[in-house]
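Bench notes, afternoon.
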Amino acid sequence: MQYSLLQLLKNICIPNQCIICHTLSDDNLCDTCILKIPHKPKLWINSHITQPPLFRPTAFTEIQYPLENSHLITVLSCTLFNDPIIRKSIHYLKYKNLPQLSNPLGGLMLRAITQAIRLQSHIILCPIPLHPKRLLFRTYNQSDLLAQYIASQLRLPVYTDLERIKNTPQQMKIHDKSERIANVKEAFIAHSKPTQNDIIILIDDVTTTLSTINEAASALYKKGFRNIHAVILAH
């Protein structure tokens, strides 16, 4: 994990504060504010699969429209992007150089995963990659930080051979669904094949139309993965 020199000096001189209520918090998001984030998971299930999905609904889960024309089997979203705490936390994680926010936000994803997952072996996490130019500018990939946190808690391996080969405009700045889909078309390539029975879970922070994770899943499918899922922090 990389920090800018300015951020390092700031952390030494000024104790970290919660970005919401400004109380002291090492991860910049305190427990009180975390508890205010609604537990509103959503689950997409591919209507064409015959095997049991990796994720199953809980009492809190909202079932979304079926996944169609997708190589994803299930997609689990952990909370709502329109919640002001989540919206601000993701913004600060991505654009305000606060990578430590990946710990409490990863904790929210971990809670949703452990409540919904059907425990199986051969599970691998795969963060949605940034294009190298954007990674160089930002210095870290927020999706990778979230995946690394979840992987460390569940002791799972991380697939690092998915590459973003197109430096596309940010999806958040595109409002038309068809334009979003076209924007990420063939944006990814996978470099290594699965071993037998691998189950791969894509990890990302935000989705609106599922277009980015669908395209990432397509790249994995072309490389031989057949059991592909996704967990998103917020939708």
